[in-house]
TrEMBL record:
Membrane topology, as annotated: Multi-pass membrane protein
The keyword S-adenosyl-L-methionine is assigned to this record: no
Subcellular location: Cell membrane
InterPro entries: Cyt-d_oxidase_su2
Organism, scientific name: Kribbella capetownensis
Segments traversing the membrane: 79-103, 115-139, 159-181, 201-220, 232-252, 259-279, 299-323
Protein name: Cytochrome d ubiquinol oxidase subunit II
One Pfam family per UniProt: Cyt_bd_oxida_II
GO cellular component: cytochrome complex; plasma membrane
GO molecular function: electron transfer activity; oxidoreductase activity, acting on diphenols and related substances as donors, oxygen as acceptor
Keywords linked to the UniProt accession: Cell membrane, Membrane, Transmembrane, Transmembrane helix
Similarity comment: family membership: Belongs to the cytochrome ubiquinol oxidase subunit 2 family.
Biological process according to GO: aerobic electron transport chain
Amino acid sequence: MSTAIAVVLLIALAAYAVFGGADFGAGFWDLTAGGPERGAEPRAVIERSIGPVWEANHVWLIFIFVVTWSAFPAAYQSIMLTLFVPLTLAALGIVLRGASFAFRKSVGTLRFRRVFGGAFALSSVLVPFFLGATAGGIASGHVPSGGEAGDPVDSWLNPTSLVTGVLAVVLAAYLAAVYLVWDARRLREYTMGEYFRRRALASAIVAAVVAVAGLAVLNAKASHVFDGLMSRALPSLILSVLCGSGALVLLMRYAGRGARLLAVLAVAGIIISWGIAQWPYLLPESLTVSGAAAPHGTLVTLLVAAGLAVVIVVPGFVLLYVLDQRALLPEEGTEDVGDRPITSGG
């Protein structure tokens, strides 16, 4: 039963990476778009692309925390006690990012739009870095088992955490650029489609370089995970590399839709490969999945709840994304028909 819950948790992590990660990556391109005049056009595409869905994507993160806390309380306690600094900074960044994205559309003066725009863009870069650093701290064995607190600094300011944090930022930027290629073309803004296509190609190459560097760091600092990647997780890792290479080829051939699917599979494959490589540990090499598991009744209840979520919640997500892709959702800040005052006829 604990294995089934671990699989559910890994799938949720991959979903948050490909959906929420792309939202953070859009903030990276917002940050690097340039001044108000030069960056106005790409920022407009970014706002129209993520506006209808950015709030919904954080449901995956909430689900991850709830499942980890309920199913693996011993691991959750150790992670929170040790990695409270990057996790707190990530939480603050998510709040700041959301508030800034909303307020930037509401303020009227350029100065305040710049302030909120800068806060949105900067937090969009810092949040995936802190989340990636958290993952690196876990993978490198800096989180002790038994509900004890590890070093609050070295646990996430170490070579594995730093390279994982940078990789998370680059992958988020890569995913966002690939998505924005398709969204720009869907909006018939072909100049912006080419703009983001070039950035998707560049970020794909940077991601490959950082990933190779990450393997070298894992070999030196997290040998258990590296050995797992080179053995039991190797098929998944190879599939991820092939999907990433295919996405790169399709981007070079201007095939945006196919590139988007392969990019999603490539990034999801990295998350899945990490989970397989770390198995059977939640905290390498001190706490296994079965050793950290809650009582059987709790795990059964969680599995039932996850099944209900698939039946009830996932269709809502699918509908949201379909409506968004078909441009059937109003932009944020536009007047809703239901908000209009009722007037008497005559």
